[in-house]
Amino acid sequence: MTRWNLWDKDRSSGLLVFAGYVWEMDRVNRLAGEKSPYLLQHARNPVDWRPWGAEAFEAARAGDKPIFLSIGYSTCHWCHVMERESFEDAPIARFLNDHFVSIKVDREERPDVDRLYMTFVQGTTGGGGWPMSVFLTPDLKPFYGGTYFPPDARQGRPGFRQLLEHVARLWGERRAELLHSAADIHASLAAMAAPAKEGAAADETVLKNALEFFKGQYDARHGGFGGAPKFPQPAAPALLLRCAARFGDAEAARMVLHTCERMAAGGIHDQLGGGFARYSVDARWLAPHFEKMLYDNAQLARLYLDAFLAARGMPGGAERASGFAATARDILDYVLRDMTHPEGGFFSAEDADSEGHEGKFYCWTRDELAQLLAPEEFEAAVKFFGVTAQGNFMDHSHPQPLQGLNVLSAAGGAGGNEAALAAAKGKMLAARNRRVRPQRDDKVLASWNGLMLGAFARAAAVLADDRYRAAAERNARFIRERLWSALPRAFYHRWRDGERDEAQLAEGYAFYLAGLIELYETTLDPGHLQFATELAVALLEKFFDPGRGGFWQSDAADLIVRLKDDYDGATPSGNSAATLALLKLGAITGEKRFTEAAARTLAFFARRLREFPQAMPFMLQALDFSLQEPARIVIAGDARSPEAGALARAAQSVYRPNKVVLGNAGAVEPFARTLPARGAALAYLCSGNACQPPVSEPDGLAALLAGSVR
Length: 710
Description:
By secondary structure, the chain is an alpha+beta fold.
């Protein structure tokens, strides 16, 4: 795929310039002026694509045509396949242009649009995924949908050409039936947005049931929960680690640590460049789907920090803890090197494909290594990475697939020759960096940046690394300047190439709020707490349902139904993230409106938590936090002093998830402001209005936290 970052139009010549490539204006479609890398990938398709918006909707109404809605994202492998097979096919494009209004949506920019129509597709087909293909009436009501369609019928899937012809024929001959069906579907979607009234409140029993469910899914051999394809799903092991601490369940903790070790050793983990791929196609974490997503790496960095702290508190766990810390650093250093805007924003993703082949950038043949490495280095690399002549990965993405490819995993030891292995890794990484890189999606999303902001801020404290604190501070400045409007209060979702969009999403507010709270707990800077409070107030004003509880996913006027997100999948739902963030912010500030909104949201989802705990593992982390008053570590004194910084780091040095760290200045709760400092800084461990005697030494605070009742 050509990567387009900049475009300009030479009005005198009728040409469009993309990153130095010049094409005639009639070779591009209406997506050419968009900022989304995914939409720009389709700007040269012969399909007359339009972006989601009023102009496209009016064209469907004026032309009396159904809408073909295609939703995907820039690093989606099967999106690339459907584009190559169908959207670049001239006869298919002509038929689409004659009979439909075709709309492209980047699901990462508009997850609210994606969620609405994915709910329909999953409900009518039993499955979902991307690319998502949905047919709508001109008033945006769906009547047929699916995911990837091949150009011609194969393996039980209808061909896209035949499907288009069938839908066009039905629209012309049996429209009344289609409209009636669309109206029924719309009514069903609206009913889903208003579920039956919640029942009894969720309690500790719900956590126990969830713990037993996930333990029952545990893969004792390879780690992880469930079978192939295997996704990391960081919210689930993070929940188990919390439950292990709450219930004293050593077995649950062992499952999580084993899972972290097996993932880090697998091919899903980039053994040379750092970071994790989205999922493994097998149960062994070996052969990944190579795309790297910011949200996965943010959550995995946090999970490995948790594992580091949990292992360090176990007998003989120092070596394991060191490995977990190294993996967390590996993720964060990858993001700093490859996924960070010069001014501090975090980019969204890297593709699985390069030069038309999935995994070509990441995989190696045995012959390649033999030519690159010295004999001793070659022997160490082959042994450590498990390289064979036949390979362990099959490239299915190209008509002429590459042969003998090896995904690198930590398959064996270095044979006592660590120096040769280190030299081999250095040469391999340098050689890989000379290859054609996969496309990078360089848009900056508020939601995913919030996840990564929290990871960097927490790592700065847990790993005592000022590089990570600096990255978090830069990101907070970048996002506040680009995406936040103080008057009126508004937090926009996407920035790219100098421009922000107009979308506002609950998950953007909630994820970034959570990241800001982590940054405040690390720095004790009252400015970060003030921004977090302003963002929380705006979140409540725009998205909270005061009548029933819970947060609407979006306040957009272009949706036929507003939904409350109730599924923690690859990322937490906006409701789950908002609930935990508001509980923490309420504990820090003493503001009851924050904790009350969180409690109302937990009550709204109580029935779902009882009946389907596996659907909302992140919300269950919020429930865990809510079931007892959290410990408050108040650090009194000058927050900018080295002594206060050392105490803040010590407060994060023990695995104790249900706590908050705060200073005694700014918008903190009133009792904290009464606590005195003697000298540079003192730390108080408090519950309610009672505190244990203060300590001034970081080791003393760590010991106090480790020895106190959870």
